[in-house]
Amino acid sequence: MSLLGDLISNLFRKPGTVLFPAENLPVPECFRGRIRITEDKCIGCSRCALVCPSQCILMVPDQKEIEVKGRKITRKKRPRVKVLRCIRCGLCEDACPSEAIHLTREFSVSGTVCETEEM
Amino acid sequence: MARVIVPVGPQHPALKEPVNFRIIAEGETIVGLELDVSYNHRGIEKAAEQRDFTRVVPLLERICGICSHSHGTAFVKGIEEIMAIAVPPRAEYIRTIIAELERIHSHLLWLGVAAHEIGWNTLFMWTWRDREAVQDILEEISGNRVNYGMNIVGGVRRDITPELNKAALDRLPALEAQIAGYVELLKKQETVLLRFQGVGRLTREQALTYGTVGPTARSSGVEYDIRRDDPYCAYAEVPWDVVTDTHGDVYGKTIVRIGELRESVRIVRYCLEHLPEGDITVKAPRNAPTGHALSRYEAPRGELSHYIRTNGTDKADRLDVRTPTLANWTSVAASLVNQNLADIPVIIAAIDPCLSCTSRLTVLNPQRTSSTEMTWEDLRRRARELNRERERC
User: Fold this and answer.
1) B55 to A32: CB separation less than 8 angstroms, yes or no
2) b/e map of B325-351 (b: 16 or more CB within 10 Å)?
3) What is the pLDDT of residue B142?
4) Whole-model pTM?
């Protein structure tokens, strides 16, 4: 471990930084990114809203017919997510019985209002 | 010589978190210290009583960013004890791996901060560079660099696949080589020796009197480590040694932490190589029976304890968190005496203080216009009143 050794080896290395947003650093497979909801799969059971520690999921009325495992049901609610309040713990993903809500690998979410609602 | 009181904080450019020091000095020599640490009360203990056992874990992980796994594990361990459920061995091993990786990144962070405090920023850059390797392993396993979200009552939430296991094992030799470099560095680097040796000495008797924990106690020759004395997770099955030292000064604390880095790498390697097969979680009941538990955990900074009382519902009736910094604070006042004013930052940094975790109690007046703290006398009076009330019942 010496300063000179580090200095010389760094001359032959690529920079550790990338030109964001033109380039992105690779994120691992299990990265906890922003929530996405597949609306066609959601059965409106509210489990995600009940388990959310930061209370960023709100169930709103939305009547819609959807198909679950070959059966047609009418859901009455659907979740709305305040993306900037989300702490990306993934408890909603674990609780969802129909795999409708999941964490993606998108890490970049920006906004100015914490209460911004987004599906 | 006349005594001068030097006030530092609560808002001060040199401080990372709010704390108020009143340093009593005679010339350049410190003769005493008055501390006021309660500037960052967040009411987390009360907030924890409002959430069920699933939703409370992410909250408790946020008591401290560096020790996030420590708080989560200490809590779920206590609840599992009350519920009398046995966690699968694979989950215990995964908890141990994350805990030790957390210790490595915390100690590397501390080493960088200590180097920064003595004005040697090269070491700061080196340690933080090496810390990236640990952060990468943690990110690959848990999906996060801090606040790993791995714990749940009854096990862990994410498994370590054979690919992740191999990737983590591949990163360890480079980390070990760097840690060996730090050991060599500590022996002969003049900057470190001049600024660390003999600075902020705490004797074994003082360490015991002030109730110090963790590396602060172990550097004064107190052989006390919860991982060995009250084993939890997989520590009883893993071969490792408690690192102690007798210097008691900042140098001793550095030796202990660097020694612990080597032991932690050893534990991580053993756990990754001997990861048992099986489930990573068992189904826990929704409600916990009435009971209480004191869950002790060796966090990177020392012994962390969670006292949990349950009342048959799905929420904790009372949660009391004693963080290691709270136990170590009083020893700072003792180790600062007769030291030079210029050594204050490194002596304070030597216990690796985490102030937000430490702030416990704030009393607001009914109009919420002012806040105070309770003195020792106030607490004693309240305890007496409470006992009398109970006796009358």
Assistant:
1) no
2) bbbbbebbbbbbeebeeebbbbbbbbb
3) 93
4) 0.91
pLDDT tens, B362-381? 666 666 667 666 677 777 88
Residue of B111, B122, B142 to mutate, testing the A interface (most A Cβ within 10 Å of its Cβ): B142
Cβ within 8 Å, pair B58-A87? yes
Q: What are phi and psi of B56, to 5 degrees?
A: -80, -25
CA dist B209 and B203 (Å) reads 10
- C-alpha distance from A84 to closest chain B C-alpha (Å): 16
Q: Which residues of B touch A87 (CB under 8 A)?
A: 58, 147
Quick check: B143 and A30 CB within 8 A? yes
Domains, chain B, ranges and CATH? 44-357 (1.10.645.10)
ipTM of the complex: 0.90
- Kindly report the CATH number that applies to the domain delimited by A28-103: 3.30.70.3270
Q: Per residue in A47-59, pLDDT tens?
A: 999 999 999 999 9
Task: State the pairing for strand pair B371-372/B20-26.
Answer: unpaired
**Distance in Å, alpha carbon of A32 to nearest chain B alpha carbon:** 5
